[in-house]
Design goal:
The structure holds two protein chains of two kinds.
Chain A: H1 5-83, H2 89-93, H3 96-102, E1 105-106, E2 110-116, E3 122-124, H4 143-154, E4 161-168, E5 175-184, E6 195-202, H5 204-233, H6 235-278, H7 294-333
Helix pairs in contact in A: 1-5, 1-6, 5-6, 6-7
Chain B: H1 3-28, H2 32-37, H3 42-54
Helix pairs in contact in B: 1-3
The chains are: A alpha+beta, B mainly alpha.
């Protein structure tokens, strides 16, 4: 199958234009996608890590607030007992001022209460049914409270104790973790009762703001992902790529055709002239090639060769012309 | 018309025979008959002079 120089040049130039364009385009789109997805993943991970750290910090803060409340109330109790050295625990249990000190709010829904540190009896509590009962009532229902109670009464030095336990929210019924801290009161009552102040509330009261932020962050990250996907996979992006590819293809085709023509056209002219020479026509005119390149050199060489050939042909014909000119003079003499 | 130019072919023949004449034709890109039909312009004469130097 014959393939012209023009066709070969055209294919070569288009391939040189299209292939790198396709490769670069493919790589660029993939890189953009990777970059976008990488940024999304990193942002998501950073956001998650930051939120976790923030939650942990808020929980830690919550624990400190609850424990400080217990210690503060314990100090107040000690002061009250020192101010009322004659009052027994039973008398204090019905003393309104003492009761007000014993049960104070903690956080949004929590409270303080007092418990005997030797026998584990709940002395003052907002829930009246459990007053004067020991922590043993929670052995089956709230094991962590039971175990903490054991630690309290088994410690002769009445050191502080703390624990987490699950408790249903009174409004929603949802079981959530509560944190409780026991701080011992330094002053025993007149009848020698040593007791501790317990401070307790739901720990999510302190981490709730972070949860709200977490939802906003997650929404923002999801929106960012959607934007990234839209930009890298969206129809407008693909259309832009296709449009640029088509324009590049058209420009490359025009350049390729012009360039190919600049080579193949003079070659065709010289080929045509050489064909005429090969048919025995020495008087053919070799076309002037304007381009300053090897093709013009070829044209000039062909012209030189043709001039030499024409000279030889003229030489070969020369004696025939002379004999034809002499013939008329000979006839006249007769 | 190109009488002067045609004379160069005679000079070439005297110098180197037909071979020189062929070379002259190739260098000038004109056969003898073409030279006879071409004007004896200063450019053409200069071209033939250069070619003669190369013979």
């Amino acid at each position: 199958m014959r393939i012209t120089i023009k066709a070969k040049l055209l294919v070569a130039m288009l391939a040189l234009a299209i292939i790198p364009l396709a490769i670069v385009g493919f790589i660029s789109v993939n890189d953009a996608k990777s970059l976008g997805m990488g940024a999304y993943t990193e942002a998501k991970e950073l956001g998650a890590a930051t939120l976790e750290d923030s939650k942990a910090a808020m929980v830690d803060l919550g624990e400190k607030i609850i424990s400080n409340k217990a210690k503060a109330v314990a100090s107040q109790m000690a002061v009250y007992i020192r101010d009322h050295p004659e009052m027994t625990m039973r008398e204090l249990q019905v003393d309104p001022a003492f009761m007000k000190l014993a049960v104070q709010p903690v956080g949004e829904t929590g409270y303080t209460y007092i418990i005997d540190a030797v026998y584990g009896e709940i002395l003052i509590h907002p829930s009246a049914p459990i007053v004067n009962k020991t922590f043993h009532i929670f052995e089956k229902s709230v094991p962590p409270i039971y175990e903490m109670g054991l630690r309290l009464i088994e410690d002769p030095e009445c050191n502080d104790v703390k624990t987490y336990y699950d408790w249903p929210d009174p409004e929603t019924g949802v079981v959530k973790p509560k944190y409780v801290y026991h701080a011992c009161v330094s002053e025993p009552t007149a009848d020698g009762v040593v007791f501790s102040v317990a401070s307790s509330t739901y720990i999510d009261e302190f981490s709730r703001p972070i949860v709200a932020i977490e939802e906003k962050v997650n929404t923002s990250i999801a929106s960012t992902l959607a934007t990234i996907k839209k930009r890298t996979e969206g129809l407008s992006t693909q259309n832009t790529i296709v449009f640029i590819s088509i324009v590049t293809l058209i420009i490359a085709s025009i350049v390729a055709i012009v360039f190919a023509n600049s080579i193949s056209a003079p070659v065709r002219k010289l080929t045509k002239a050489a064909n005429e020479i090969s048919k025995g026509n020495p008087k053919v005119k070799i076309p002037k090639i304007k381009s300053n390149d090897e093709i013009r050199d070829l044209g000039e060489s062909l012209e030189s060769a043709l001039a030499g050939l024409a000279f030889l042909l003229d030489q070969a014909k020369g004696p025939e012309k002379k004999s034809k000119k002499a013939a008329p003079k000979g006839k006249k003499k007769r | 018309m190109g009488a002067q130019l045609a004379k160069y072919f005679d000079q070439a023949k005297a110098k180197g025979g037909v071979q020189a004449q062929v070379k002259l034709a190739m260098l000038t890109k004109m056969s003898q008959s073409q030279a006879q039909a071409t004007e004896d312009s200063p450019d053409n004469i200069a071209k033939f002079e250069d070619a003669m130097k190369q013979l």
